[in-house]
Prior knowledge:
Blueprint lengths: L2 H23 L25 E6 L7 E4 L5 E4 L3 E4 L5 H12 L8 E7 L1 H6 L1 E6 L5 E4 L6 H7 L12 E6 L4 E6 L1 H7 L13 E4 L10
Parallel strand pairs: 6-10
Antiparallel strand pairs: 1-2, 1-5, 3-4, 6-7, 8-9, 8-10
Amino acid sequence: MDNKRITTLQTALILMLVSILTACAGVPEGENNPPMTAMEPEPYRIGVGDTVSIHVWRNPELTQSIVVRPDGNISMPLMGDVEAEGMRPEELADEISAGLSEVIRSPEVTVMVDSPVSAEYRNRVRITGQVGQPISVAYRQGMTVLDLVLEAGGLTAFAAGDRAVMHRNTGAEYQTFSLDLEAILEDGDMRTNYTIQPGDVVSVPRKTLLRGEL
């Protein structure tokens, strides 16, 4: 094999390797991401719409599976309404045990969350305004602003993408961060392609005559 052919083969292999590495890198994120809220695991708290199973040992007539009502309460035989929203399962079990102890000797209560519907809504991200379809979608780790815009069908012809904003709860308060969606989509400028976190809301305003945009 002559040197020219070897060089050509080596060049092809290098180009292939560069292509593979570029593909693995994926779409770059924003250079200076807004502050992320510390997402430490927290004990699950029951919310509206959750389905909870309540088991009272040796009292099958009190054992039931029930959905937390919009007012945050559930109904228990012998007790009436019991506030469940915001409680941890073990806290609700203690509350029910205390109530039943007035009519049952030493009740043993176990509470389990079968369908944590409320958690899904707390962990969603949303985009509104001048996009193909304003949406609310379940958060997925690694999502960026670009991912959310593409899921919404891109920008409309009337979108002022350079004035888009992202609203984020940073812990103490909601903060607003500027986005340049036009630069992301048209120029490949990823400086504001920030990483999304649960609860983020992206808003895309409409072009205005006062700015000479129409």
